[in-house]
Predict the structure.
Amino acid sequence: MLQEINFDGIVGPSHNYAGLSLGNLASAKNFGKVSHPRAAALQGLAKMRANLERGLPQGLFLPQRRPDTAWLGQLGTSVEDASPTLRANALSASSMWAANAATVSPAPDTADGRCHLTVANLVTMPHRSHEWRETLAQLQLAFASGHFAVHAPVPAPFGDEGAANHMRLCAGHDTAGIEVFVYGEAANTSGTPFPARQHREASEAVARIHGLDPARTVFARQSDEAIAAGAFHNDVVAVANERVLFTHEHAFADREGFYAELRAKLPEVEIVEVPAAAVSLADAIASYLFNAQLVTLPSGEMALVLPGEARETPSVWQWLEAHVAGNGPIRHLFVHDLRESMANGGGPACLRLRVVADPATIDPRFLATPEKLDRIEALVARLWPEQIAVEDLSDPALWIACLEARAALCTELELPELDRDVF
């Protein structure tokens, strides 16, 4: 039976605040602060466990090998000799944000009836541009059965950031849906040169590769205003689940045209728009209101899985409470402490990749159970660094500790295939 499964990235042992992500306001704001990798990983695992307890299928992806010595080797240097900037890029734990791992088109949407996954190239940011090889290796293992087709990235220079700029609307997860690809333009209206990371050409390529029906595919441009305000991905200002689009008023460049196209292609769509007069773009982005997980519970009711910052932002929490008290489609609010991820610019939705599939067709090593989460938590508590300051990134003892911790996790989860160089 086809179900939506959220695959969360386990926060890696090298999690740090090196401020590498241009346009990500939280990343810039917290540059240089001391990170807490152990707490970060445990916070993410607690969210996974809570979603399991809510009756939601849950998967996981492993952190990538850091420092990425093979990538540094391609640049003619080593972790010992690299500049501080290159070393920080080689140590980034950003693969934890699995929403950027790939774009996923479920089987009901594709021409050949398989679930298609195209790995994101993430070429805009150096610290993320070398993730795709290990991501591809994990996806090829997890989705090795004939029910899936896993594709290498769209080639550069066409920037593709994966599911963070992709939404799917449908009557039910197991029915044919409308796939929405959101892209940006290089210019914005703020005078701040934040890059638009998703190129329309990349989105169009993914749609072709996945064999999507053009009549059920939408390409929408993200607003310059949203990008300038710090919405570096669409999932910072909009999220969809089944028939519901939950979005900020200023998320899209041609809001009315986009809404009209959605209604024409999926008449039952329900658009829940939060007006700027109620929640400013600044508050929406700071609280990651739209970077919540919008999920359907076993009861059929929809819920938002939110970061604590949403409850702490008065305008956001006031709007949410009013919506739940009314007759809107979102009926439950679940709040989680994800401060370590949030401080680097990633909320609940950043941490997960949504895959609609039959769990029986997936390699069980990538599926979470309470017992498996127990074992991971114990390993994290034992081996993940308690804290990392930016100056620690030059310490060989940290490099060794991060590599050994990840290798131990591969052993614990019986995934020796991932404990090797993928270059």
User: Anything to note?
Assistant: The chain is about 30% helix and 20% strand. The chain has one domain: 3-418. Residues 307 and 336 are 5 Å apart (CA to CA). The radius of gyration is 20 Å.
